[in-house]
Design brief:
repeat, mainly alpha, membrane, about 0% strand, Mitochondrial carrier fold
Length: about 325
Amino acid sequence: MGDAFKDYAAGIAAGIATVLIGHPFDTIKVNLQAKDANKRHGPLHVTSNIVRRDGVRGLYRGASSSFLGVAAESSVLFGCYSQIKGMLHPSKEGDAPYSAIIPAAAVAGASVSLILCPTELVKCRLQMQDRESRAGGQRKYNGPFDCVSKTFKQEGLRGFYRGLSATAIRESLGNVCFFTTYEVIRKYMTKVLGGRPVGAPRVGTHSEPDSYLAMAGQTIKDIAVEGTTGIVSGGVAGIVFWAIVLPFDVMKTRMQTEQAVGAAKHGFFSTFHMIRKESGISGLYAGLSPTLVRAFPANAAAIVAWELAARALYENRA
């Protein structure tokens, strides 16, 4: 089994973990960001309404498309990042420099935007249709496949890439911040806590992954360092990602859900000015609290899943 396949397969595990932990927070965020959202209501009120109306399963509205989309996105993101970083820093001596981390993260982020844009469009429209039905309309979509079919009939293939510009900026800039933060914290914590976490340091380096093969000899301290480092580095990196790129995410959500609520279509800059005119700069940070609350556990889970999956795959040298 080639190293490239292992890197991409480990990314799928990260995506599944992200959706399981983070999708409910994402549903709340989308409801807060949408055009007809009631600005007086906060995340707790929105959560209460969703659970009261549809139960906990309502928080996973659109999750089926997310599982497919995020699994594919994470596979490309982590796989591309690992492979490009490995090509830019082929030596197994020391940690990768920023000259390898930053371009690898930027290219990986730009690549996944092509996958994320259509899948997030379907997810956002499914998450928003409950509010539309409460306003007197009927449900437009019976599920993700119905949403795909109707979007294609009404808007064509281009309709699935509404908000691509905002998505691409969010992913490129955001993942540079994410992976840089992750690598810095991982390096620092490993140095301070001692030991060496088994996982990401060897992913994508195309070297003999000694650390993966040393699992049997791990001490309790090694396991504790590994788990703590993955949780903290992934969680903090996720918070940094969203704190920086949330305005682009708000713009993306508005661009993707306008057609669903019958609003006029707007481009990148017109959407920015529209949000600023309606709600001020604070409107670009709609959904900030559930996004940041989601960021730590979802990204911590993603990093831990990625590192564990990579270790398991690299241990199997068949």
